[in-house]
Fold this protein.
Amino acid sequence: MNVPSVLLAGGRWRYFQVPLGSFQALHNSCYRKKSTAPKEIIPNVAFGDENTKESGNALDKLFSSEQQATILHVLNTASNKELDAFRLLRGRQSISIIEHREKFGPFQNLESLINVPLFQYKSAIQVCNAILCPETEGKKKLQDNRVLRKLIKPEIERERLKALNSIVSIVFGTRRVAWAHVDHKLAVLDWQQNECCQLMKGTYTSSVYLKEISSVISKIPKADFYVLEKIGLSVQNSSLFPVVLHFHIMEAMLYALLNKTFAQDGQHHVLSMKRNAVGRHFELMISDTRTSGKEIVKRLLAESVLKEEPRIFFPSDKIVRYRQTFASTEKYRAEELYDSLLQAIAFYELVFDTEP
């Protein structure tokens, strides 16, 4: 099937019939010659001008008719995988564009991009610029790998991460283990905790650890990846040695018991994510100390009811139970429960580079 191509900046192309498969050629066209590569678009209005967002087709006026046609062609014809090639359209953003397109039809102008959930005036401009001047594949992959190496261990190919349907975020302390099962659309499928009061009693008996952790794993739902919180406690502080030893035992057992197919396929299904990286993502860090995430979780629960497009979705048939669970822990330091949910959100937003 053929569709009309678009006229690129510089006036060197004319309208003609091209197959849909030529999308990739359009994607890379601005790199063919240095003289024809469009420079970064600098809008003639301030990003912070709230009146601009309400001024009709203000977004369209920032781009020429040829540039508008290029952007609209991408928004209206690109598949989810092709949209995901743009750094600012990864994850939920590309899904939102596809869903909006299927529900309301093709985008008629650039201004309509603001009507898509998760997009605002400033982010819409950035997306349009990214479509006109996409990153080179090599640079994009280098940045992706650098982000992954900083956030999670062991190293996992981004292709595997892109294909995941859900993760289970697991946070354990000295007395309990909590987990949040969250899918790729940031919908909470399960969220609970389990008391493990016998683990640090006595001399760290291996059989006790195996019994307790096996019991917890039997309750944890299946997922593509299991993400464990990595706590950076110093082993040089002798007073913390019992706690550090406990965390290492817990981590080792979870890695071994959850990586059930590792011996057959050599593929890691258990990852570790730095605790402080999650803390910085939610601005919970005071110097090198991470503060409680209880108030953020409380707000997320409220937004799930009050907002049409909340940051994380709690299914209507489960929201009452989750709110009751949260209320029952407010008098106690159930940080593991709160942190498991925040870690799941941070994983998706940081790994897939989506805006909160």
About this structure: The CA atoms of residues 171 and 340 lie 5 Å apart.
